[in-house]
Amino acid sequence: MNEFITTLKVPIFKTKSIYTEYKGYLNKADIYLNEKILNILRKNFPEDLIISEETNLKKHNNVKNLYVWIIDPLCGTTNYTHQIPLYSFSISLNYNGIHVFSFIKNLNNNDIYFSYKKKSYINNKKISVSKIKKLNEALILVNCNQSDHKKIQKYFIKLIKLISPPVSRRIHIYESANLELSYVASGKADAYINFQDNIWDINAGINLVNNAGGFATKISNNEIKDIGVLASNKFLFRKLKNIIKNI
After folding, report:
1. Dihedral angle at the C-alpha atoms of 190, 195, 197, 203, nearest 10 degrees?
2. What per-residue confidence (pLDDT) applies to 209?
3. Which CATH fold would you assign to the domain 2-126?
4. Three-state SS for 34?
């Protein structure tokens, strides 16, 4: 598995991406990587359940298999489509609902983030979240991949007003959820907030942050049925959680 992840790359396809309001961009690269990953998992773990962005989850509702692979073949398809070098793929394994390990690979510089046995690494070097204590010194990553939806847009606009500088040091939008969570886990960024995402977009990253000494949790409310995520270090997590709670 490690050799497969290390060597897996994505070519640049010249075909146009398809865009839908619900799905966002779908590129030939999504399908290419999905097939590559599914083939290796099905070959080596034929009895395990696999949940992928490019598969139909309805087929898996009644499956009772204890081993569940969660994959996002291409996280950051919009960036890939516009040739912006911020996209990744992720693979996680859960056993009976408990995290076993997670991989996230930056497909542009081949950095591999890895979480196992309550520790997180980048290229075999142990990582930890930042030690920034003050919100006005924090680099916060936010995601607006579905912000055109009216309910999400309302919360996103309020959030930006509440955390924009000088409240925070900077706000960045990269649009590659698991990669952004990797940045929080390695201390490159201090927090990540996303009001709406899917399990394959955030599962690996959440595990990476939690095992790097940080706090990452799913967030939701009565209006937003989809899951979101808040991730940060122990100093900023509660401050940001209170901001989100009062939106």
Report:
1. 40
2. 98
3. Fructose-1,6-Bisphosphatase; Chain A, domain 1 (3.30.540)
4. helix
Residue 221 has pLDDT above 80, yes or no: no
Structure-token match 């607006």, residue found:
144
Instruction: Name all contacts of 23-27 with Cβ < 8 Å and 24+ positions apart.
Output: 24/77, 24/78, 24/145, 24/146, 25/77, 25/78, 25/81, 26/77, 27/74, 27/77, 27/80, 27/81
Comparing C-alpha atoms, which of 202, 163, 162, 165 is closest to residue 184? Answer: 202
Q: Can you count the helices (H) and strands (E) in the chain?
A: 7, 14
Amino acid found at 214:
G
Q: Does the predicted model carry a pTM greater than 0.70? A: yes
Strand-pair partners of 101: 93, 116
The identity of residue 40, as a single letter, is I
CB of 194 closer than 8 Å to CB of 141: no
Kindly list the domain boundaries of the chain, sorted by start residue: 2-126, 135-245
Topology (CATH level 3) of domain 135-245: D-Maltodextrin-Binding Protein; domain 2 (3.40.190)
Q: Which residues have C-beta within 8 Å of that of residue 6, sequence separation ≥ 6?
A: 110, 112
